[in-house]
Specification:
The complex is a heterodimer. Chain A has no helices and eleven strands. Chain A is an all-beta fold. Chain A has a single domain, classed as Immunoglobulins (Immunoglobulin-like), CATH 2.60.40. In chain A, the strands form two sheets. In chain A, strands 2, 4, 5, 6, 9, 10 and 11 form a seven-stranded mixed β-sheet that branches. Chain A has a four-stranded antiparallel β-sheet with strand order 1-3-8-7, with no helix packed on it. In chain B, a hairpin with a 6-residue loop joins β4 and β5. The N and C termini of chain B lie far apart (about 40 Å). In chain B, the strands form two sheets. In chain B, strands 2, 4, 5, 9, 10 and 11 form a six-stranded mixed β-sheet that branches. Chain B has a five-stranded antiparallel β-sheet with strand order 1-3-8-7-6, with no helix packed on it. Chain B has no helices and eleven strands. Classes of the chains: A mainly beta, B mainly beta.
Chain lengths: ~110, ~110
């Protein structure tokens, strides 16, 4: 049971380039999330999805896009990368977002935009 | 403003030296408080969920407690392998408006042998 798997682990982009961060989970969780983690700041929600075909914005969605065509996969797309997008990105999943459901996280993608 | 604050930012202990980490919150409609452990280069790993004031949860050397304004993560006789960043997250919101999950900034714990 792999849990939540993210690829790649590291990536360096030049300003203006685009890339897709991959995330897949094998726990049959309906809910999936993308967070970014910056030094000295709490995890910030970028986008989330409550099921295949349904996505919604979180706190910091600008500069990102997502899609959810299957229950397992939730890729995050960066268009026209900017230095402000340098961060560690975490994908997570959970059962329906009720009070008792903890998030299960992947091990992150460290992205540097120069 | 709804927020979650963890203190201290960093804590250095000697092996066996017990201490506590704090997570204070000012939110409307607490639905649950979560503690996670995060090792360098890894994603957060779930430890505990607390729902109401007075509740306590234990796991090995860790005990989490909850009051109406804050939660403590007590570490008893820590070992070097307890070194990690500990995150708290608060799920909050009224029944009619849905819930949100807000993370604190974390406490970086180092336990020296």
């Amino acid at each position: 049971n792999a849990g939540v798997t993210q690829t790649p682990k590291f990536r360096i982009l030049k300003i203006g380039q685009s890339m897709t961060l991959q995330c897949t989970q094998d726990m049959n969780h309906n809910y999936m999330y993308w967070y970014r983690q910056d030094p000295g700041m709490g995890l910030k929600l970028i986008y989330y999805s409550v099921g295949a075909g349904i996505t919604d914005k979180g706190e910091v969605p600008n500069g990102y896009n997502v899609s959810r065509s299957t229950t397992e996969d939730f890729p995050l797309r960066l268009e026209l990368a900017a230095p402000s997008q340098t961060s560690v990105y975490f994908c997570a999943s959970s059962y329906p977002w009720d009070d008792s459901s903890p998030l299960h996280f992947g091990n992150g993608t460290r992205l540097t935009v120069t | 403003e709804d927020q979650v604050t963890q203190s201290p930012e960093a804590l250095r202990l000697q092996e066996g030296e017990s201490s506590s980490l704090n997570c204070s919150y000012t939110v409307s409609g607490l639905r649950g408080l979560f503690w996670y452990r995060q090792d360098p280069g890894k994603g957060p790993e779930f430890l505990f969920t607390l729902y109401s004031a007075g509740e306590e949860k234990e796991k090995e050397r860790l005990k989490a407690t909850l009051t109406k304004k804050e939660s403590f993560l007590h570490i008893t006789a820590p070992k070097p392998e307890d070194s990690a960043t500990y995150l708290c997250a608060v799920r909050w919101g009224e029944e009619t408006s849905g819930s949100r999950l807000t993370f604190g900034e974390g406490t970086q714990l180092t336990v020296n042998p």
